[in-house]
Amino acid sequence: MAVPILKQEDVLIAQVQAILSDDDLNQLKDDLSNRIGRARSRGVIIDVTALDVLDSFATRTIRGIAYTAKLRGANTVVVGIQPDVAFGMVQLGLSLEGVETALDLEEGLAFLRNAANSRGPRVR
Amino acid sequence: MSAEIRVPIEHERDIVTARQRGRELAAANGFSSTDQTLVALAISEIARNIVSYAKRGEVMLLALEETGRRGIVVIARDEGPGIADPELAMKDGYSTAKSLGVGLPGAKRVMDEFKLETQLGKGTTVTMKKWVR
Fold first, then answer.
1. At B130, which helix (H) or strand (E)?
2. DSSP of B25-71, one letter per residue?
3. CA A82, CA B36: separation in Å to the nearest integer?
4. What is the percent of chain A with per-residue pLDDT over 70, rounded to a whole number?
5. Confidence of residue A86 (pLDDT cuts 50, 70, 90)
6. Residue B98 backbone zone (phi > 0: left; psi -120 to 50: alpha; other: beta)
7. A66: domain CATH number?
8. Which of B91, B100, B104, B108 best probes binding to A when mutated, by most A CB atoms within 10 angstroms?
9. Helix residue spans in A12-99 (DSSP H)
10. Whole-prediction pTM value?
11. DSSP A121
12. Which 8-state DSSP code applies to residue A48?
């Protein structure tokens, strides 16, 4: 099932569902990269609140998504990593290095607003 | 004692099924929510190895009960190419498939018992156990 992407002003929000296959993640990478261009987005939020596991593949792919978005001129924030999920990632030795994280959607949006303000408005 | 659960692993979406069944079994046997997550994570990594290296195999899940403790055992079996250097494969950061190289050592870390048996050209079996704390 494809990950739905919502647009809120200049931010794209990807709402990851509980059951996330590798194909869904790869699809999300392509979708986001395209949508950033079409919507002239400055920020991307990947909301993983519904996810009960972040394994090495998902972690690597999310890092790839964030870097792809960065190359397209948008900052990525991963929000909603649950306590058990975070604990598991630490135990397994998984890292989201280079990817911004925030507690929840609200914090993620606030982070991106601050980042956008310091960059000035995007050219239309 | 519950019957064993077998999940055939042939496609990456089977990884999701295997870890869900593992989590359900862990939950039904009294594991904490954190430990359910660790079991699901270990299954995810091991099942992914099957898809990446052996193409197909099977994950078997079974509840354990012995001398007053409860747990679960996960057996992941494939008839793939086997692992040429099992010692190296158990090292953090080593991977031949462009992954993060945390799969086997990571799974070992989050489970209580871990055994890797592999034979070149014959296949690989990973047996791992976790006990209820």
1. strand B123-131
2. HHHHTT--HHHHHHHHHHHHHHHHHIIIIIS-EEEEEEEEEETTEEE
3. 13
4. 97
5. very high
6. left
7. 3.30.750.24
8. B100
9. 22-39, 56-71, 83-92
10. 0.89
11. P
12. -
Rounded (5°) CA angle A24-B111-B14: 30
Domain count, chain A: 1
- Which domains are present in chain B? 5-131 (3.30.565.10)
- Identify the contact set of chain A against chain B, taking CB-CB distances under 8 A: 19-23, 52-53, 55-57, 59-60, 83-85, 87-88, 91-94
Backbone angles phi, psi at B32, to 5 degrees: -70, 165
**Does B37 touch chain A if contact means CB atoms closer than 8 Å?**
yes
Give the integer Cα–Cα distance in Å for A105 and B119: 48
Closest-CA residue in chain B for A61? B99
A45: which 2 tokens?
């939020």
Residue A124: inside a domain: no
pLDDT tens digit at each of 133 positions of chain B: 568 999 999 998 899 999 999 999 999 999 999 999 999 999 999 999 999 889 899 999 999 998 889 999 999 999 999 988 888 888 877 665 545 567 889 999 999 999 999 999 999 999 999 999 9
**Cα A42 to Cα A70: distance, rounded to the nearest angstrom:** 9
- Three-class DSSP category at A94: coil
ipTM for the predicted complex comes to 0.85
